[in-house]
Amino acid sequence: MTKATILVADDDAAIRTVLNQALSRAGYEVRITSNATTLWRWISAGEGDLVITDVVMPDENAFDLLPRIRRMRPELPVLVMSAQNTFMTAIKASESGAYDYLPKPFDLTEMIGIVGRALAEPKKKTTQSIDDAGEGMPLVGRSTAMQEIYRVLARLMQTDLTLMITGESGTGKELVARALHDYGKRRNGPFVAINMAAIPRDLIESELFGHEKGAFTGAQNRSTGRFEQAEGGTLFLDEIGDMPMDAQTRLLRVLQQGEYTTVGGRTAIKTDVRIVAATNKDLKILINQGLFREDLYYRLNVVPLRLPALRDRAEDVPDLVRHFVRQAVEEGLDPKRFDQPALDLLKAYPWPGNVRELENVVRRVMALYPQDAISGEIIENELRTESAETGISHDVGNSAPLTIGGAVEENMRRYFSEFGEELPPSGLYQRVIDEVEYPLILAALTATRGNQIRAADLLGLNRNTLRKKIRELGVTVYRSPRPN
Question: Pairing state of beta strands 274-279 and 259-260?
Answer without folding.
Answer: unpaired
